[in-house]
Fold this protein.
Amino acid sequence: MSNQMLRRNVVIIGSGPAGLTAAIYSARANLKPLLIDAPTDAEKHTVPGGQLMITTEVENYPGFAEGIQGPELMADFRKQAERFGTEFLETWIERVELQERPFTLHTRDQVIQTETLIIASGASAKWLGIPGEAKVPNGLGGHGVSACATCDGPLPGFRNKALVVVGGGDTAMEEATFLTRYASRVFVVHRRDKLRASKIMQEKAFRNPKLEFIWDTDVKEILGNSADGVTGVRLHNLKTSEGRVFPCSGVFIAIGHKPNSDLFKGQLEMDEVGYIKTSGHSTATNIPGVFASGDVQDSVYRQAVTAAGTGCMAALDAERFLDHLPVMMPSGDEVTMEGEHVTPDHQAIITPDGHMVPNKVECATPGE
Ligand SMILES: Cc1cc2nc3c(=O)[nH]c(=O)nc-3n(C[C@H](O)[C@H](O)[C@H](O)COP(=O)(O)OP(=O)(O)OC[C@H]3O[C@@H](n4cnc5c(N)ncnc54)[C@H](O)[C@@H]3O)c2cc1C
C-alpha cells in the first residue's frame, strides 16, 4: 500500500510547551504549520502534550498566580494553537532525511516533505523502574515522587519534610542542594561509596548541614498510598545485603535525562549526551532550515517557560528563513534559504557557487 504524501512549509515535531508555542507563532504568521506528536504509549512514557501531562500542580508558569494543573495548561496551549489553524497529526516520526531540502519525514502511513523543520521532541527523565515510581494510579508519581526538584520542590507537600534524592552525579547534587531550602532534611541515596559529581558540586553538598548521604545503597521500592503520598522507601545495602524501610515524605529521582534525539543521530550535531546543538543566537542547527527548541536542545534550564521561549524563537527563525532572510548558524555564519553565507564579520557574502562578494550596497554616483 502506498503511503500518503504531504507537502508543507513548516513541520513541528512534539506538542510540549516548545512545539505548541512554535505552532502558535507560525500559525499566526499564516505559515499553516503541521504539528506531529507521538500518541499515548505507556511503554514509551509518551502522552500528547509532553512532560507536563504527567505532573500535577505547575506553580512557576508565569500568568497563573494561583498555579495550574499541568494537563490543563497543555490543553490551553493546544486550544490556542488550534485557534490559529495549526494542523495536528498524532503519530510517531520514525525516520528523517535531512540531507536536502525539502526535508523528508517518514511516519508509518505518511511521507511528509517540508521546507523547514522545528524539532521540539523534548527529553525524558531517566527512571529506576521500581515499584511505586509510576504515575498514579500505578504508583506515586506526582504524589510525592518526582524527577524535577526545581519544578516540584517548593510544593507544600515537601516543605519541612524528610526527602530522599536518588543519584550521585551533578544533577543529584544540584537537586539535593536545592531541596534543602524547603525540606527539614535531604538524604542522598547512592549505589557507590563515592560520588560521580564534579568536585565543586561535591564540596558544596558535603558542606551543606541539611544534607546526608546513604552510601552503597539501592532503592528497591517507594512506599505509600494515594491518600498519604510517599511514606518511605525500601533500601538495600549492596555491601551487607541488609534491607530496611527508611521513612520519608518525598523521593526525587535524579539519575539524569535523555534528550529525545535518537532520530536525528548522524545528521544533526549533538553533544556527547545527545542534546542537539543550536547556534546560541538562534535555534538554528547545523542544517539550514532545521531548528531545535525546548528540552531536546537544553541540558541546563529544562523548564516549561524556557521551552516555550525557544519554541517562539524557532517559529520566528523558520519564518525568517522562509522569507529568504539570513539566519545565524552554530558556526557564526548567517545562511539564507538559497544557500548564501554571510561571514561572521558581516563584510562578505559567499554565494552557493563559492564566489565571495562584498556585503554592502554599491553607492549610486551623484547625478545618476
Ligand atoms: C514530573 C515533571 C514535572 C515538571 N514540572 C514542571 C513545572 O512545574 N514547571 C516547569 O516549568 N517545568 C516542569 N517540568 C519540566 C517541563 O515539563 C519541561 O521542561 C517541558 O515539558 C519541555 O518541553 P518540550 O516542549 O521541550 O518537550 P516535552 O514536553 O518533552 O514534549 C515533547 C513531545 O515530543 C514528542 N515526541 C518525541 N519524539 C517524537 C517522535 N519521534 N515523533 C513524534 N513525537 C515525538 C513526545 O512524545 C512529547 O509529547 C516538569 C517535568 C516533569 C517530568
Observations:
- The radius of gyration is 24 Å.
- The longest strand covers residues 4-13.
